[in-house]
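We read letters as residues; the integers encode the fold. Take this protein.
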Amino acid sequence: QGQGPFPAVLYNHGGLGDAIGGDLEGTCRALADQGFLAHAEKRPETVSLEGHLDEVLHALETLRGNTDADTDRIGIMGFSRGGLLTLQAAIERPDDINAIVLFAPAPAKNALEKTLESVASIKAPVRIYVAANDLYQADHVQLAKDVEAALRAANKDVELIIYPEFGNDGHELFFEVTDLYWLDVLDFLKIL
């Protein structure tokens, strides 16, 4: 609603192959309800991450190219594999991103570990969110702590929140927008 340009946010989904993790439309609608221009694109249904970062960077350029987007107020967020790709995009385009949100970033074999070696170029503040029982596919709690530690070691503005256990698999916390974590996201995105 209203006149732009608006602060803008790119959302990157998780998933592997044809399994899509997260809620692309629901997240974008929840952002739009709070005054953000939101954008998400479904990436190719591949197990390999090859080409996925290019897709995310293209989506970021699409968002930045929207005349309703305030290019001085751009956020990027991602869940699981989308969290890893969000971190990689922030490394590739540090001058284009003003806020970074990572929901339970995935290891993708050793891709996250390699990515953490390059976080020095990140300029935007980072928030990391994970449920205490997000341990089923991988130990996402430890992975989130690893991301926080790497960013702290590089003197970055970072905060990690570990939420109480959620259902039988804490990874499912981010399958849809819920107040348990969303209020923290909105509070952080006020910087945009």
The beta strands are 6-12, 14-16, 19-21, 37-40, 69-79, 99-103, 126-131, 158-163. The longest strand covers residues 69-79. The mean pLDDT is 96. DSSP finds six helices and eight strands in the chain.
